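Q: Can someone sanity-check these two? First one:
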Amino acid sequence: MIKRRSLLMVMVAVMAGFGCGLRDQGKERPAEAPVAARTVVPTPEITTIGQPVPIIGREAPRVRSRAADGSVFDLKDHRGKVVLVNFWATWCAPCIVETPLLVDTYSAFRDSGLVVVGVSLDREGFEAVNPFLKRFNVDYPVILGGGNLARDFGGAYILPTTFFVDRKGSIVSRINGRLHDDVLITELKRLL
C-alpha cells in the first residue's frame, strides 16, 4: 500500500512539474514575422547536423531524371538560362498555394530564359503527382526527387524549398518556405 501511495505521489509531482505538456495551451504566443521577412536571400550556408554545407555560389548538382511527361530533364541542358528548382509535395499546403504562382511565373518569363523544374518529394511517385499537375495545369517539367537530390542541393528540410540557379549553372539563392510574388519577381529581375 505504501509503495502504491509513493508511486501515486511521484506521478502527481511529475505531472505538476511538467504540466502534462498542456501548460502553454491557451497562452498567447508572440506573432511570427511574415514568411518573406524571415526568408534570407541569398543564404550563405545551411547547417546539417552541425556541419556547414556551402550552397550559394556552388555549382548546381547534376540533375538528370525522367519527368512526369515521360521526357528526360537534364539540368545541364539548360545552361545559359535561369533555373528555378522547386522542392515540393502534393500533400504540402504551402506548396498547393504556391503552384499557381509558379505556373504563371513560368508562363510570363519562359521567353526571357526562365526554366522552372518541380522536384516532387511524394513517396507515391507520379501516381500522386500526375493528377496534381493536371489539376493545376502545370506545364513546366516535374521530376521525382529522392533524399539524394535534396541532399545534393544542401537539403530541403521544409517544403517548399526553392533554389535559383543562374545562367552559369551556380546556385545563387535559396528560399525556404512558400514563395511570395514580390520576392520571386525581385529575384528573377536580378537574374534574368
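And here is the second, same format, sequence then C-alpha cells:
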Amino acid sequence: MTMCEAMRQMPASAGRVPEVSGEAARARTSDEALRPRHETENTGSALLLAALTRENLQQAWKRVRANKGAAGVDGRDIPETARYLKIAWPEIRQHVLQGTYRPSPVRRVTIPKPDGGERELGIPTVTDRLIQQALLQVLQPILDPTFSEYSFGFRPGRSAQEAVVRAQADVQSGCRIVVDVDLEKFFDRVNHDILIDRLQKRIGDAGVIRLIRAYLNSGIMRDGIVVSRYQGTPQGGPLSPLLANVLLDEVDKELERRGDCFVRYADDANVYVRSQRAGERVMALLRKMYAKLHLTVNETKSAVASAFGRKFLGFSFWLAPKGEIKCGVATKPLATYKQRIRQLTQRSGGRSMVEVVERLRPLCWVGKPTSGYRKLRTSGERWTSGCGTGCGRFSSSTGNVARRCTGN
C-alpha cells in the first residue's frame, strides 16, 4: 500500500479539515507565538489546517518521493517512512495542530564546492520533509507574489536561464559595471529572530510561525551529537529557499525603489550600473543593508568591476563586433562540465551503453526548452545545449557522442 493510499483510508477526522468559525478561524497575533498551550487545544491556524488537508499532503508526498533523498537522523528512508506514517501520522498531525510538534534535528552532511571548500547541508527526516513540503505548498502562493520581479531563485515559473537573460538585457542597456555581491555562508548565518520578524509581517498566523520557529531551532546532528542552532537555515529542507527569499526581499525592494538594475538568484545578486563611482556607492549601500540583517559580504569574492570580467550563475558576457552583448558558459564551469563527461564516458569504466546513457542523462538537456533557454540559445553560439557543449548531439545509439563533443 502506498502512502497516498494510506492517507485516503484514514478516518475523516485525520484527514479532513473541520469547519472553523469565530475566533478560531482568525489568525492569532504574533504575541501568541510563544504562549504555552493546553495539550488538547488546537492552534486555530487556518494555514496549518490547509497544509494538512488530505489532498495537500498527497501532493506533498508525491513531491518528496520524486525528490528521493537520503534518510535523516531517524534512519528511515522513503519506503520505511511510508510504513511508519500509516500508524504514526494521526498523532503527528494532532501535535502539529496543537503546536506541540518537535521536529527532529537535521543530519549534517558536507559536499565539495566547485571552487574548493565544502558546503554544509542539513538533511531533515522524511517526515519533516513531508510537513515542510506541505507547508511550502500553502505558503508559496501567498508569499511569492510579494517578492521582487527581479528575484529568480527557487520561484515557480522562474529559472536561472531567465535570470541570465535579465542580466544580459541590463548590460545591453549600457550598464557595463557590475556590483557582484557574494554573501559569506549565507544559509549558515541567517538570524532566526530577524527572519521570524520579517515573516510575521507577511503572515499573521501564530501556528505557522511557531512551527517554522521549531524547525529553525531543531538543531543539527554532528558525529552523533545534537548541536543547538541560533542562526542558519540549513540547505536541504523544502522551506529553506522560501525563507531565504523572505529575508532578502527587503534589499530587493530598496534597489527597486532606487531604480537600480539588478538580478538576484537566491543569495547571488548582481547590480548593474554605468560607472565605477556609482558601483562603489551601491556596494556601500548593500554592505549596510546586509549588516542590518546580520549578514556578511564576502569581500574576497565580491567586487565592483566590468560586467565582461565576471561570471553570473556560470555564464559570462562579451561584446560582439556590432555592439550586441552575447553570453555563454564561462570557461571554468565549462571545463568542469567536460571533465565530468570524460569521467562518465571513460572506456575503462566497464559499463554498458545503456548505463552510460542513464548516467549522462541528468547532465544533458531533456524536455521542452523554457523561454529563458530559447533566448540564451539565440544570444550566442557559446551557449550549450544537447550534450552540453553546443553540438546538440546526444543519442543512446551512438557510442562516443559525448566524448567527441568534449574533444576526445
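A (reply): Looked at the second one. Confidence is low (pLDDT under 50) at residues 8-40, 366-371, 377-408. The radius of gyration is 24 Å.
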